[in-house]
Design a protein that fits this description.
Elements (H helix, E strand, L loop, with lengths): L4 H28 L13 H52 L6 H22 L2 E2 L2 E2 L27 E5 L2 E4 L4 H5 L8 H13 L3 H5 L2 H47 L3 H26 L9
Antiparallel strand pairs: 1-2, 3-4
Length: about 300
């Protein structure tokens, strides 16, 4: 079968087009660093790539949630530390009131100090962070203890759970009753402080000291709740570490399918440019051929 000039031109044009397309693909890989920029580049890699991207998006969502949970628990721990310090100072005040050498006026002064401690405790109980009350449960816009009256709680006693992993939720709050409620003594923290203040104001050191056991129970309740919050914070930290590790693994997997080897890509691009220039030169020479070249 004899090749005609038209067939030759078509063959040269097809080769030029193929060489040009390959060269552009290599240039795009070199510019973007990506070996696969569209599904047709590697159809077999589509499923693992889509799976890796989905896992990365999921891990980023959970990492955001975990960051929020960690922030809330850290803020909560700071306020619980203040509660513990106030309970300790209150106990020290009661111990001092019972030394037997204080006058009624001195005891009344100590009562004023305990009243200030109650006010500070009430400030902690009504702590507001970013417009949300810390101990109000789901009623985050409602002040839990407007006056500090015994038995008062205007918030919601429900736990706030955040999803920190597939099917895994973590509690990120403590409610007012869990911290400031009755620890089993028949008195919440506000009643306890009111009774201590009243006894000291009346100059009755014995009545004030009689509240020591109740104060210890209330302090133990606060410490227990803080410890539980600390355990939750530790769990959140570990979940963050695990999720970050998974994200790194998925990004490595995605890179294996998507990213180009720059050295290899540049080498192939140089070779392809040489081949393309050679093809252009040959096409140029063939296109100048004429029947007159063979006539003598």
């Amino acid at each position: 079968m004899r090749a005609t000039l038209t067939t030759t031109y078509r063959s040269l044009l097809a080769n030029l087009t193929q060489s040009s397309t390959r060269l552009e693909d290599l240039r795009l890989q070199a510019a973007t660093g990506k070996r696969m920029s569209k599904p047709s580049d590697d159809p077999s890699a589509i499923r693992p790539v889509l799976n890796a991207r989905g896992q990365i998006r999921m891990s980023e969502r959970f990492l955001n949630t975990l960051g929020t949970a960690a922030d809330r628990l850290n803020i909560l721990d700071t306020h619980m530390e203040r509660v513990e310090n106030l309970m300790q100072r209150s106990k020290e005040t009661l111990v001092y009131a019972g030394n037997g050498s204080l006058s009624p006026q001195d005891l009344a002064t100590l009562g004023d100090q305990v009243r200030l401690m109650k006010d500070e405790l009430l400030s902690v109980a009504n702590a507001n962070v970013d417009g949300k009350y810390l101990f109000s449960g789901y009623k985050e816009n409602v002040k839990p203890y407007p006056t500090g009256t015994p038995g008062e709680f205007d918030g919601d006693p429900s736990a706030i759970d955040l999803e920190v992993g597939p099917g895994e939720k973590v509690k990120v709050n403590l409610t007012g009753p869990e911290v400031f409620g009755d620890p089993g003594t028949g008195k919440d923290m506000w009643q306890l402080f009111d009774d201590m203040i009243a006894a000291l104001a009346a100059g009755n050191a014995d009545a004030a000291l009689a509240e020591m056991s109740n104060l210890d129970r209330a302090a133990d309740q606060a410490r227990t709740q803080r410890s539980q919050a600390g355990n939750l914070a530790q769990r959140v930290d570990q979940a963050q570490t695990n999720m970050q590790d998974m994200r790194i693994d998925m990004m490595a997997m995605l890179s294996r399918f998507e990213d180009a080897d720059i050295v290899e890509t540049l080498t192939h691009m140089t070779m392809q440019e040489t081949a393309f220039k050679a093809a252009l030169d040959i096409t140029s020479r063939v296109s100048r051929l004429s029947i007159l070249d063979y006539m003598r």
